[in-house]
Amino acid sequence: MRICVVGDELATGVGDARALGWTGRVVARTHFSRPAMLFTLAVPGETSTQLGARWEAETAARFGPDSEIENRLVVALGRHDVASGLTVARSRLNLANILDVADANRTAAFVVGPPPGSPAEGDRIAELSDAFADVASRRRVPYVDTYTPLAQHEQWLADLAQGGGTYPGQAGYGLMAWLVLHTGWHAWLGLPQDEVA
């Protein structure tokens, strides 16, 4: 199995002293029957428009061409659409296009939504997360809402504050990993869920 994670710098765990981020923690808690390859393909400051323009070429170089290899796509959406002033309609369309192309390529997709950031952007990030969730739901693609459970979470907010309000630390990425692991990750991979605690 080859899993490509595409997204912004949050996908790589910026701010995590252990350099694991949520992706490293999730893979560490996932027991594959055969070794899997995980590729984190992140671009700092990237919007969903920019992600949409690059993801297919970058993943094509890493996905396996033969039918014996399972190719999987994790779309890790950040908060840069809000900061750059993209409309929610444009953000929706960008994600829809990514998921539709992945489906046409027979690549199973999994979407992780944007986590909370600056309180001033809270309402707009919440709206963006809801829009992304709707796009994924319409395509029957698993979606992890990281915004709603973390927006008022004391540990998340404290961790974010320590990192200057932009990036979480170890605790914050641990919370994101927990949400991913408990929102359909194992079922999406076709693995038993009894390993998750």
Automatic annotation (TrEMBL):
Give the species. Promicromonospora vindobonensis
Lineage, top-rank taxon, reads Bacteria
UniProt-listed Pfam families: Lipase_GDSL_2
Domain (SGNH hydrolase-type esterase) spans 5-174
Name of the protein described by the UniProt record: GDSL-type esterase/lipase family protein
